[in-house]
Specification:
With 190 residues, the chain is α+β, with helices and mostly antiparallel strands. Helices cover 31% and strands 23% of the residues. The chain has one domain: tt1808, chain A (Alpha-Beta Complex), CATH 3.90.1570. The protein is built from five helices and twelve strands. β9 and β10 form a beta hairpin.
Length: 190
């Protein structure tokens, strides 16, 4: 008798049931196209850039008493039953719904930020290119921050992407200005 082994896809619900156990391993995982994928540990400069951008957004929200939350790296957003990516940063203006163990299912980000760790990593670039149209289709603006190139690529539903080398702004948060020279300053010190 031949043994048949088939690869099963994991659903978001099944992934959420495993969330506590996965966290207990000390590593981060996300659900990508029905597969549990271990996230690579962040490089120090990658984490620094994420923390700095989150700090700018959070301080803007607090200073101007604006609604919303900013998440980073451990909050997933459900694309479908088998795909729940966790962007480096997400800003959500409205928070109707609820947050469960792993994926936020009741609301959607207005802004998604991905810091590109390794522009030569085909898998990282493929996932950016695969997820980007879904974020945009559902109303999010996407900032892809490219530290090695010293720029950010801005994507939205308003046409062609643009490249920003000076200051990140987001019209839904009037007055928010994130100077890229500050964001990238630590890279030039290494």
């Amino acid at each position: 008798m031949a043994l048949q082994i088939r690869e099963s896809l994991i659903t978001v619900e099944e992934f959420e049931e495993l969330a506590d156990w996965l966290r207990g391993t000390g590593r981060q995982y996300e659900l990508v196209e029905g597969k549990i994928v271990k996230k690579m540990p962040s490089k120090d400069w990658h984490t620094h850039i994420i923390n700095l951008i989150v700090a700018y957004i959070q301080m803007h929200l607090v200073t101007h008493n604006l609604p919303g939350i900013t998440t980073s790296q451990i909050t997933g957003f459900r694309f479908n039953d088998y795909h729940c990516p966790e962007p480096d940063i997400a800003y959500c203006h409205s928070m109707s719904g609820y947050a469960n163990q792993h994926c936020i299912t009741g609301y959607w980000p207005d802004l998604v930020v991905e810091v590109v760790s390794n522009p030569d990593n085909a898998e990282e670039i493929r996932r950016l290119e695969t997820d980007r149209p879904i974020w945009i289709e559902r109303g999010a603006m996407v900032w892809e921050v490219w530290p090695q190139a010293g720029c950010a690529k801005i994507f939205s539903d308003r046409g062609e992407p643009r490249i920003e080398r000076d200051t990140l702004t987001f019209e839904s948060l009037p007055g928010l200005e994130i100077p890229l020279k500050v964001v990238f300053a630590k890279l030039s010190q290494e």
